Amino acid sequence: MKISFAKPASAHEGALVVTVREGRHLGATAQALDTESGGALAKVIAKSKFEGKKDQTLLLHAPAGLKLDRLLLVGIGKGKGFDAKAAQALGGTVVAQLQGSGDAEVTLAADAIEGSSLTAAEIAANAAFGARLRSYRFDRYRTKEKPEDKPSLKKLVISTADHGDAKKAFQPLDAVAEGVFMTRDLASEPANIIYPESLAEQAKTLAEHGIDVEVLGEKQMKKLGMGALLGVGQGSERESQLVVMRWNGGPDDQAPLAFIGKGVTFDTGGISIKPAGGMEDMKWDMGGSAVVIGLMKALALRKAKVNVVGVVGLVENMPSGTAQRPGDVVTTMSGQTVEVINTDAEGRLVLADALWYTQDRFKPQFMIDLATLTGAIIIALGDQYAGLFSNDDKLSDKLIAAGKAVGEGVWRMPVDDPYDKQIKSEIADMMNVGGREGGSITAAMFLKRFVNGVKWAHLDIAGVTWSKKDGPVTPKGATAFGVRLLDRLVADNYEK
Ligand code: BES
Ligand code: MN
Ligand code: ZN
């Protein structure tokens, strides 16, 4: 779907979308249409249940007294609460309602909204962003889809008096959408297509946007002593990889921000094998790494004024004659040893070496890791919030604020020493599991042992990486949760 900005047309034709505030208060364009229709529009609205409440819509075909084919009225609630998120949801609603309408082109009248803190240009830009995000489809493998089942909507025109400003404000948002799409594509691909080496190849394509990409294979990781990461991958025919991506948009002497992603391209559980039902979901167990890759792309495309390093540990967790066994002891790059009680608790093993490597090599300002780490976080927080675990209150507060701003919530959970005893081992420095109680917390306690005095936050995104239902700006499927959150964290706090 193409998106463009234009000044309001003199004639209202084709398919048009207008906004209405709660209490049936028509926006400027709706008002003009009502006049043009000789009051017919207000009459229709008055006879309907549509009051302009948030999320209410009313679709009229060939509305009386107008030249329009279709008119979609979108309720925006009380204008006072109409923020960037609401404008994005407006754009999302337009796409959701009209992408299968038969219209190839739709115009959204982005009128100023009384009471809103946003300018009309900001409303237009954010509506465009939401529309773009909602229009995402992963249809590579649907070879038999009939044309009438495909979205008809090819072009969305957003009309606003300040179309120049709107276009400018949309540019960085569009960059973020590109990053989000890359993340969604990678997480949606099946595991026969995306495996450690092919995922590393995908990361390499970021070079064309000015990102420096290095790929380490098993030989190099062995030299570095990454026994935990390599142990997870040793049952797979596919070679494990560690990818380092660098974006240098800041001053040379500025320590980078570091983002680290779990990239288990398929998680069978290994010898501690998972049950068959639902195992196909484990193709997106590389979701954390996909977020880091998409985030790097977004930052590069919008030329973020900051130094950032992204590190992803890519492995496939398979059961085989060469797989690691429950009870095996592995030595991590940090020198600490781990007794692998359960081969299905593999993400923390991958991150242990990736975190240690990152702080050792880059001395970052902070490290934030993302991982579909535990089923327990889904039990605790469901599909709305990611779990946030951190050794730093300020970093946590910044993440929580960024999450609120973009609509990707993070909820802080404890990482306190008393939980640490749950991962004590009889024969090694620690075990890789801590029992059922507080399963997400003991996973975080494990990671914390590989954080050496650096500010650190861990986001357990197991519950938010894949959605079974459509959200305002996220069609069901891969959400790319984390890209917008971390882009915002960087933009609001680290580019000044
Ligand atoms: N990748 C899973 C966690 C997961 C579960 C992600 C469901 C997304 C949806 C992880 O590797 C795992 O298997 N964790 C185990 C840990 C346990 C063995 C301590 C779990 O959560 O059951
Ligand atoms: Mn697992
Ligand atoms: Zn996993």
Word description of this protein:
With 496 residues, the chain is α/β, with parallel strands linked by helices. The strands form 4 sheets. Strands 8-9-11-10-14-18-15-16 form an 8-stranded mixed beta sheet, sandwiched between helices. Helix 3 crosses helix 4, helix 9 packs across helix 14 and helix 12 crosses helix 14. The model has no long low-confidence stretch (mean pLDDT 97). The structure holds ligand BES, manganese (II) ion and zinc ion (ZN).
Number of helices: 14
Kindly, what is the distance between the CA atoms of the first and last residues, rounded to a whole number of angstroms? 34 Å
Low-confidence stretches: none
- Content-based structural category: alpha/beta
Question: If you average the pLDDT, what whole number results?
Answer: 97
What is the CA-atom radius of gyration, in angstroms?
25 Å
- How many DSSP E strands? 20
Strand content: 15-25%
Oligomer: single chain
For the biggest β-sheet, the strand order reads 8-9-11-10-14-18-15-16
Question: Percent of residues in helical segments?
Answer: 25-40%
Specify the overall morphology: elongated
Identify the bound ligands: ligand BES, manganese (II) ion, zinc ion
Q: How would a crystallographer describe the biggest sheet?
A: 8 strands, mixed
Any descriptors?
20 strands; binds ligand BES; 7-stranded mixed sheet; 496 residues; binds zinc ion; alpha/beta; 8-stranded mixed sheet; 34% helix; binds manganese (II) ion
